[in-house]
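hiii, so i know i said id send this last week but things got crazy w the move. better late than never?? heres the sequnce for the chain we talked about at the cafe, plus the structure i predicted for it. fair warning i was half asleep when i ran it
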Amino acid sequence: MLRHEFQPGKLVAGLFLAAAGVVYAGDAGGLWVTEWFAVIPLVSVGLVLAGVAAGINGAVRRRRGAGRGNTADPGPNISG
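okay and structure toks below
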């Protein structure tokens, strides 16, 4: 049972921001040296890809949902 709809844009953004955190954590831990500006392209590309993924997801949902009603689980019927 799904509790919420899948949003791939947020997943992609989260993965790229987590990768940026790993890059800075590796620098802080002394595993490698990272310049302060090195994460800017990583975060920028991640946000662009997240926007593309969200746009594609929205287009697919609009196209599929044009002829369908609400298919979400309404939950238990409490009116009684």
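btw The chain has a mean pLDDT of 88. thought thatd interest u
miss u guys!!
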